Amino acid sequence: MHGDDDTGHIKDLQDLNDSLVGEIRSGNAAVVVEMQALKAEMHDFRAEMNAFRADMHAFRTSIIEDTRDFTRALIGRFDRYVREMTTELRRLSEETRELREESRAQTQALLAVLDRLDRPQPGGAAA
């Protein structure tokens, strides 16, 4: 009877072993499935990151081009303004020179008139 007991006990151990092996295999299968899901998520995440990087690159390129265009336009306007101001300053300088010459001529004419007034008049009368 002892032999039947051992056979039953061995059978129980084999069943337990088979059950544990099954659980380990199903557990490993669950781990494998979870790892595959994580790999898929990582792949999707990498794809999203690459798309984000591409978008950021396009955005930076766009900003650089917009800034370059704005700067060119601003410099163009500044150049036109400087040319216009230079032209106006030259005109004003020439006008100032002409006014100085006119003022000198008028001053000399007035001094000449005053000199004549200060001279004794023929016949001794002062004007």
Concise structural overview:
The chain is an all-alpha fold and 127 residues long. 92% of the residues lie in helices and 0% in strands.
List the helices and strands and how they pair.
Layout: H1 2-118
Overview features:
mainly alpha, rod-shaped, 127 residues, single chain
Describe this structure in words.
This protein is mainly α and 127 residues long. Helices cover 92% and strands 0% of the residues. It has one helix and no strands. It has one helix at residues 2-118. The longest helix is centred in the middle third of the chain and has 117 residues, at 2-118. The radius of gyration is 53 Å and the shape is rod-shaped. The protein starts with a helix and ends in a 9-residue tail after the last helix. The model has no long low-confidence stretch (mean pLDDT 86).
Q: Average pLDDT, to the nearest integer?
A: 86
Q: Which stretches of 5+ consecutive residues score pLDDT under 50?
A: none
End-to-end Cα distance: 171 Å
Structural class: mainly alpha
Helix fraction bin: over 70%
Shape: rod-shaped
SSE series = H
Number of beta strands: 0
What profile does the largest beta sheet have? none
Task: Compute the CA-based radius of gyration.
Answer: 53 Å
